[in-house]
Design goal:
- The chain is mainly α.
- It has a single domain (2-140), classed as Up-down Bundle (Growth Hormone, Chain: A).
- 70% of the residues lie in helices and 5% in strands.
- The protein is built from 5 helices and 2 strands.
- The chain has helices at residues 2-24, 27-44, 52-81, 86-115, 119-136; strands at residues 154-157, 162-165.
- It has a two-stranded antiparallel sheet.
- β1 (154-157) and β2 (162-165) form a beta hairpin.
- α1 (2-24) runs parallel beside α3, α3 (52-81) packs antiparallel against α4 (86-115) and α4 (86-115) packs antiparallel against α5 (119-136).
- It is elongated.
- The protein starts with a helix and ends with a strand.
- The model is unreliable at 154-158 (pLDDT under 50).
Length: 169
């Protein structure tokens, strides 16, 4: 219960602090260190005999990163793709997060059951967190302009002259 409480505090803290940092600094510089936090958390959990204070710290760091990730995805979607199709783009970017959040407990359990330890999957996770955070550093400058949104005008087309929605390019 203590670990999950601190995880929740971490999520709330991560959202607030990430928002403040994104208001002041480029997202790559904010995101990289924040996405290294779950790698640190995984490293702390590598031993099967973990002391409670270490587990609490790992839970807080993981929660902080989870809060930061959700804000980062939302912020980056708007900054790099504009607001014209924000909902669709955000949904497509967030979908893998939801899918893998559902799959990962099963994967962690499978690795634990087959190897007797979480260490192999935690090691893989550490690498993935670091690579994912590092990829944020490869993002370019924020775009100055975006493609216009669909006009939503109906035009007549084709032999049947059935209405279709015009898409501006």
């Amino acid at each position: 219960a203590t670990v999950m409480t601190l995880f929740g505090v971490g999520v709330l803290s991560g959202r607030v602090i990430t928002g403040l940092l994104l208001d002041r600094f480029w997202a790559g510089y904010v995101g990289f260190p924040l996405l290294c936090l779950p790698a640190i958390s995984s490293f702390l959990l590598l031993d099967n005999a973990i002391a409670l204070p270490v587990a609490v710290l790992a839970g807080f760091l993981l929660g902080f990163a989870a809060g930061a990730e959700s804000d980062l995805v939302a912020y980056l979607a708007g900054r790099y793709f504009g607001m014209a199709h924000y909902g669709k783009i955000y949904g497509m970017l967030y979908m893998p997060f939801g899918i893998f959040s559902a799959i990962s407990p099963l994967l962690y359990a499978y690795v634990r059951d087959t190897t007797g330890s979480y260490d192999p999957i935690l090691s893989v996770a550490m690498g993935m967190y670091l690579v994912g955070g590092g990829l944020l550093l490869l993002l370019g400058r924020y775009p100055e302009t975006f493609a216009p949104a669909d006009t939503g005008k109906l035009v007549m087309s084709g032999p049947s002259r059935e209405p279709r929605q015009e898409i501006s390019r």
